[in-house]
Amino acid sequence: METWIKKNAFQLNEQLGLGGVPIGTAFEKISESEAQYILQKAWDLGVRYYDTSPWYGLTRSERTFGAFLKDKPREDFVFSTKVGRLFRKVPENKVPPTMWLDPLPYDFEHSYTADAVKKAIADSLERSGLIISILYIYMISQRIKWATVILIF
Questions:
Q1: Would you say residue 98 has pLDDT above 90?
Q2: How many CA atoms lie within 13 Å of 123's alpha carbon, on the beta-carbon side?
Q3: Is the pLDDT score of 68 beyond 80?
Q4: Domain count along the chain
Q5: Residue 96 domain-assigned?
Q6: In what order do the strands lie in the sheet containing 78-83?
Q7: 102 forms bridges with which residues in the sheet?
Q8: Predicted TM-score (pTM) of this structure
Q9: Residue pair 47/12 in contact by the 8 Å Cβ criterion
Q10: Annotated catalytic, 56?
Q11: In CATH, what number is assigned to the domain containing residue 115?
Q12: So where does this one cross the membrane (predicted)?
């Protein structure tokens, strides 16, 4: 299979990463200070691959990862996030039911158009304050039978 990605253009050398689902409160409500403690512990143990999504906690995880990683040397870690949903702030009583135990007050819609992907990237850059190493197209709808990985350098 041919690809436009040059051989060895990007190598993920990390053997272990930290995913953002727990930070998004999928399993229990955790405070921001507890989330920062988890991230700091992972960093102290040598974790340098951090994967999140704006879906996790309705933007909570992406914001929390960004707040933690913003002062770390950018060349020292890999940061990945995802596109496939657009988020808009809503009153707390309008937050849709989700799996998240303590989501931020956002609603969402699935969208994979070029404009939606561009907006999702811009929103993730703004929320996290980080340069994105890997961007995944996430939660592809049933109508779409393919997926891809977009690398941003």
A1: yes
A2: 22
A3: yes
A4: 1
A5: yes
A6: 17-19, 49-51, 78-83, 134-137, 149-151
A7: none
A8: 0.85
A9: no
A10: yes
A11: 3.20.20.100
A12: none
